[in-house]
Structures are given as structure tokens and as C-alpha cells.
Amino acid sequence: MTVITWTDDRVEQLKKLWEGGLSASQIAAELGNVTRNAVIGKVHRLGLSGRAKSPSSAAPRPRKPRPAQMVRMPRPVARGNTALAHNYDVEMEPDPIAVDNVIPISQRLQLVELSDATCHWPVGDPASSDFYFCGGKAVAGAPYCAHHSRIAYQPAADRRRTAPKPPR
Question: DSSP letter string over 76-126?
Fold first, then answer.
């Protein structure tokens, strides 16, 4: 480790270069055998502050003008953690009126009795003994009767998410 001695001659040269607007790195290179940090430390201890600005940094840089069509739109204010916040802007639709589709016993079918012409809509719990399929006349090209097709195939607009209702 080399100890740097600041002679009066070197200090005067440092002051002159600092007032001339050179950077600490440039002064260190000019003095030789001294680091940038040593120059900064000595400048601080000497209390040298207001040095001359270099010609390139003396004039403020002109700003680029913004295009006239740019308009800032205000953003909605949100506070807190909004990652899991619900944002529903959907009108709540009333619950559809439940229509009991009573399936006659003679129309009810088991799995092995189904065909392309019968409705494949399951009714009940498959694990129970009273489980059956609708068995009504299927709509052409669909596996369900007209009633169950309306339930199974809803238009995309009707499948909007709605907030879950709390249990009563």
C-alpha cells in the first residue's frame, strides 16, 4: 500500500485543476500516482466546492417538445392490494324461474338403453339406484332434447360471471 503525500505544489495543482472544471478522474490522471477517491477526499478536506462548469455542461439541454395530440388520461385510483379484488360492472339479472321438467317414468332410460335419437341428460346421482337419463326425443345433431339443449347450450352473453350469492 502506497502512502500518498500531498505536497504544497501538488495541492496547488489540484486546486487549479479543480477550479478549471476537470473531474476527479481527470485530475487523478493529471497528477499521476493518485486515485480518483484520493482526489475527492482531498477536495473535501480542503473545502473546495464551487468549481467551474465545463462548457458542455454549462448550458442546459433543450427539452424535446411533446406532440400536441398526446393527452394524459387519468387513471382510476385504487388503494391497497387489488390483485384479488372483484371488479364487477355487470347488471345483476334476476334468477331464472325454475321450470320443473317432469320426466314421465315411461320416458326414463338407463345407460344401455340410450340411442342417438334419445336425450342423454343425466338426472340424479349416478351412485344411487334411482339415477336415470331423460330419454326424450333428441334435437337433430344434439345429444339432448329441446329443454335440456336450452340449459346445456347458452349464448356467450348469458354466461357472464356474477358475484356468488351468500347462503341464507
Answer: PP--S--TT------PPPPPPPP---PPPTTT-B-GGG--TTB---EES-T
The 3-state secondary structure of 113-152 reads: HCCCCECCCEECCCCCCCCEECCCECCCCCCCCHHHHHHH
Q: Number of C-alpha atoms within 13 angstroms, CB side, residue 150?
A: 5
Q: How many helices (H) and strands (E) does the chain have?
A: 5, 2
The angle at the Cα of 93, spanning 97 to 99, to the nearest 5 degrees, equals 10
pLDDT in tens, 96-121: 555 566 888 888 899 899 999 999 99
